[in-house]
Specification:
Blueprint (H helix, E strand, L loop, with lengths): L1 H27 L12 E10 L2 E10 L8 H18 L6 E9 L3 E3 L11 E3 L10 E2 H10 L3 E9 L3 E3 L2 E3 L4 H8 L16 E5 L18 E9 L2 E10 L18 E7 L2 H15 L7 H20 L21 E6 L14 H6 L10 E6 L6 H17 L5 E6 L17 E4 L7 E9 L2 E9 L5 H5 L3 E9 L5 H10 L6
Parallel strand pairs: 3-7, 7-10, 15-16, 16-17
Antiparallel strand pairs: 1-2, 2-13, 3-11, 4-5, 4-6, 8-9, 11-12, 12-13, 14-20, 15-18, 18-19, 19-20
Length: 497
């Protein structure tokens, strides 16, 4: 009996050892304990009856050093989704428009849902695609081959990124797209890539200057029709602080800092206004055109704002500013350069300053969360900081909450005392490239929750001279603060719970 038990124990030990070895081997090849495969979307917030339509807003945030959740990955899925839709609906007039300050030729994404690399990105230097990854630049070309009208504007080639062999430079994006112009379309689609692709390299100057007056700094991807995540979606608008940068050896974005953004589906007005801005900018990409572009944008923005605020109609096909409607109390959208007699501190056309200023008259506690990559020490920024400081001191509510994360915060905020003017204060680290603020205040017995998502750095040049954008999402205690809370969960460093 004892001998039988000993034999059984030996056999059991051998079997356990074999199973452990198998587990190690399977783990090595990525079958057991494989990292969770994720895309770029942190969550989705639904808004009903916005100008008669349902609107979904996807939250995009990436932390410094994270190989997953790159907002550019969602761009890749949107472009591929437009191609998938066109395959199913050959007669549909599908369009794609993409802008970025930096444009990488080599940035590639694994958008294959059945791959264990799904959600990751890397740089492909020697080919447009491999068995798992495809360049975003090539997806744009492929869209043209399927007959999708595609527009691309960029200003600067993506910076070199570290690979295993050391830093490696990207390619010239204008030369890449030019090299594809004469390639034939797929069977059944007439013409060549050049019949569907229009691209421009913006030759504005002043890159490298902190004020950077002539940067074409917008970061957009719009798709008119999309078959994505098993659904047909329309009027897709991607906006992010993230440039289309190269990807380093560890899967990180070339600007390897915190990034944020949104994708908005189903909002025809925001989609159309963004495309209007891109089409306008396409005509002003020459070296000397920046001044004329600024003049056109400032004059149009002010003229249209005056009409809209007085209830006068503006043709949607020409509109470049959106302040909401009777059936949309949630969304706003603005573009820079701003036009104002008071510089960039404009509480009509600059949503940063408009909503920061709302805190001063709050009848209850306030919340302020700000992330910005470039916060200079000019007069505008002194006013910004003083306005925030005065609001917290004057509201004087121990339940107020403050997060400031920008690269220069040597302004003296010591007058805001923990336990007296706020229950939470953080000055987070500076490794971020986001450009967003969130503000909560109480007015006329209603608590408001405002999120401003932007491509706009916090200095005078970014607002008064550069091409940038802001999307505003307004909620209140009656509608709920679903977007405010979801976005803040990932970006406010604890200020928004």
């Amino acid at each position: 009996m004892n001998k039988t038990i000993r034999v059984f124990k030996i056999i059991l030990t051998v079997l356990i050892s074999l199973l452990l070895c198998a587990s190690v081997a399977l783990t090595t090849i990525g079958i057991i304990n494989r990292p969770k495969r994720v895309g770029a979307v942190r969550g989705v917030v639904h808004f009903s009856n916005i100008n008669g339509n349902d609107v979904d807003v996807e939250v995009l945030t990436r932390y410094a050093g994270d190989a997953y959740y790159n907002p550019n990955f969602r761009e890749a899925e949107m472009i591929y989704g437009a191609i998938a839709y066109k395959k199913e609906h050959k007669d549909a007039n599908v369009s794609i428009k993409l802008t970025s300050f930096h444009i990488s030729v080599v940035a590639a994404a694994c958008i294959k849902k059945d791959s264990d690399k799904y959600g990751l990105m890397k740089s492909l230097y020697d080919e447009d695609y491999d068995k798992d990854f495809v360049r975003i630049s090539y997806l744009l070309v492929l869209a043209c081959k399927y007959g999708i009208n595609t527009t691309v504007i960029g200003q600067v080639d993506a910076s070199a990124v570290w690979q295993s062999e050391g830093p490696r430079a990207d390619y010239h994006f204008d030369e890449y797209f030019q090299s594809k112009m004469n390639e034939s379309c797929v069977e059944g689609v007439q013409g060549k890539v050049g019949d569907y692709l229009r691209f421009k390299k913006c030759f504005w100057t002043s890159y490298g200057d902190r004020s950077a007056a002539d940067m074409f700094h917008t970061k957009f991807c719009t798709v008119s029709h999309c078959l994505i995540d098993g659904e047909e979606k329309f009027n897709g608008l991607w906006q992010s602080a993230t440039n289309l940068d190269g990807i380093d050896a560890w899967g990180g974005n070339g600007n390897n800092n915190m990034q944020s953004g949104v994708v908005i589906w189903g909002h025809k007005e925001l989609f159309t206004i963004t495309n209007n801005m891109i089409d306008l900018a396409f005509n002003y990409c020459g070296q000397e055109d920046a001044v004329q572009y600024r003049k056109a944008m400032r004059e149009k923005s002010q003229e249209q704002y005056n009409k809209l605020i007085n209830g006068e109609p503006v043709n949607l096909d020409e509109q470049i500013i959106y302040i909401g409607t009777e059936t949309d109390k949630v969304f706003e959208m603005y573009f820079t350069p701003l036009y104002s007699t008071y510089g960039s501190w404009d509480t009509n056309l600059n949503p940063y300053t408009k909503y920061i200023s709302k805190m001063a008259d709050s009848t209850d506690y306030i919340i302020f969360s700000a992330n910005n990559a470039n916060f200079s020490d000019a007069e505008f920024n002194r006013i910004w900081n003083q306005t925030v400081l005065d609001a917290f001191v004057n509201v004087n509510n121990p339940k107020s909450r403050l997060n400031i994360c920008y690269d220069t915060h040597d302004f003296d905020f010591s007058a805001i005392e923990l336990g007296k003017n706020a229950e939470f204060i953080t000055f987070a680290g500076t490794n971020n490239h986001s450009k967003d603020i969130q503000v909560s205040y109480k007015d006329e017995n209603i608590r408001h929750y405002v999120s401003v998502l932007a491509t706009t750095n916090c200095h005078e040049g970014a607002m008064a001279y550069q091409a940038n954008s802001y999307i505003v999402i307004k909620e209140n205690e009656k509608t709920g603060a679903n977007f405010f809370n979801l976005f803040g969960k990932y970006t406010s460093h604890g200020a928004i719970e």
